[in-house]
Specification:
about 425 residues, mainly alpha, three-stranded mixed beta sheet, two-stranded antiparallel sheet, globular
Length: about 425
């Protein structure tokens, strides 16, 4: 257990410092501040999809961030100094808050350098690279992308896995999802909304306390199930739990390091609920491949043409390629956030597997106490008994009852010892 001063004054000090971080990050909206507007796509196709999109540093400079970057960096710097001054250098919660301040300073610097080589370098520091290994001498994210692509290519044409027709309208999707979210959170938590929108490019997008559905989009039940468990159970769930923190309100918001944990949890949730499907995994694998291509020198047209080979239409290929180069330039290094899904999944999976192996099941639900990171879970768990940290109020069903996850991980620890190549030889006659 953590040893702290649990007085009202101490709790109020933590709350005040935490609230300052939440307020300071409010105008930072990374994806909104690096996206390409619709005119870029229109010009690209007007030119026959043969010329690079016209995006450079001047393009981004014409789209202000909405805040003074130098002042914002100074604001986080002062919060970091105040945290150290009031809590000391070795206070565990202070350490988390100080790291968050430093990370947000990096985020602001990244946004300041949109359209330059430094943007991509800072993106790699924050989100990682496709060349990152999972452990010393181990496989990389690029290796995972290739493995997933190879595995999925063998089943991609199977009639058994043919996706259902998308015959659910946007209006019906809102109604269905709202009912499911209400059932998951309880009727009293209707503040978590599913709303119709005609102002988004994607079929759906999650905000702090809502899921937006594009008005003219079409869905099938697979799509809605993924939105329910990925956006609803994880992203909205951790927002709800973070917002309910009485002291450490910083858990309601998260910098890029928590994005990796968040997306990893969301993909894991898709897997354990059997909501995911091969074409979904293919999309995630393609994101790794696309980032890796750009890191190896491929430009926007290379990545766009790669997506065309994946049986995507021209508009979808443009949308996917632009995700890789947003914030950067069409000939620059990539924005690497799209690695978070697979990177986070592997990290979360291994964390839970080891927690089960070591009999530390109580640590697993703490992944949902807010927008946290793996490295912070131990610290946060130590403060639960003192009431500084509130356990997650909302836990998705697979994590509210850990029996199923635990049984799966017990077998997983053994299965990972088996040599798949030898098993393939032994089973050749059977298959």
């Amino acid at each position: 257990m953590a040893t702290t001063d649990n007085s009202a004054d101490y709790r109020q000090l933590l709350r005040t410092l935490s609230d300052r971080i939440v307020a300071a990050q409010k105008p930072i909206r990374i994806l909104d501040q690096i996206k390409w507007d619709a005119s870029i796509q229109a010009d690209f196709f007007k030119n026959g999809a043969k010329e690079l999109p016209r995006v450079d540093q001047t393009y981004y400079d014409s789209r202000p961030l909405g805040f003074d970057a130098a002042q914002k960096r100074q604001e986080f710097h002062m919060i970091e100094l105040d945290v150290a001054s009031h809590l000391g250098q070795y206070n565990p919660l202070g350490g988390i808050m100080r790291r968050m301040c430093r990370e947000y300073i990096q985020v602001v610097r990244m946004l300041e350098t949109r359209g330059t080589a430094e943007f991509a370098a800072l993106s790699q520091e924050l989100y990682g690279s496709a060349s990152d290994a999972f452990h010393a001498g181990g496989p990389t994210l690029a290796d995972l992308g290739k493995l997933l692509s190879d595995a999925i290519s063998n089943i991609d044409q199977s009639e058994l896995l043919k996706p259902a027709d998308k015959n659910i309208s946007g209006e019906d999707a809102v109604r269905i999802l709202q009912k499911r979210i209400n059932q998951a959170y309880g009727e009293s938590d209707a503040a978590m909304r599913v709303i119709l929108s005609d102002g988004i490019l994607a079929d759906a997008a999650a905000g702090a306390d809502y899921i937006k559905i594009r008005k003219d989009a079409k869905f099938n039940d697979h799509d809605l199930r993924v939105l329910e468990v990925h956006e609803g159970w994880v992203h909205l769930g951790t927002t709800l739990n973070g917002s309910n923190q009485p002291v450490c309100t910083f858990l309601s918001k998260g910098p890029p390091s928590s994005t990796i944990t968040q997306e990893g949890l969301a993909i894991l949730m898709e897997i354990v609920t059997f909501a995911s499907y091969p074409s979904r995994l293919k999309r995630l694998a393609n994101r790794i491949t696309a980032v890796h291509m750009a890191e190896q020198g491929g430009d926007f047209l290379d990545v766009y043409r790669f997506y065309l080979t994946q049986n995507l239409g021209e508009e979808d290929s443009f949308a996917n390629a632009s995700r890789i180069f947003r914030g950067s330039t069409p000939t620059g290094q990539p924005f690497t956030k799209d690695l978070s899904y697979n990177k986070g999944f592997i990290m979360i999976y291994n964390y839970i597997r080891l927690a089960v192996k070591k009999g530390m099941l109580h640590r697993i639900p703490m992944l949902f106490c807010g927008k946290t990171t793996l490295e912070d879970v131990r610290t946060l768990a130590q403060y639960v008994d003192e009431g500084i940290i509130t356990p997650p109020r909302f836990l998705p069903p697979p994590f509210a009852d850990l029996n199923g996850i635990t049984a799966w991980m017990c077998y997983s620890n053994f299965l990972n010892k088996l040599d798949l190549a030898r098993i393939q030889d032994d089973y050749a006659a059977i298959l």
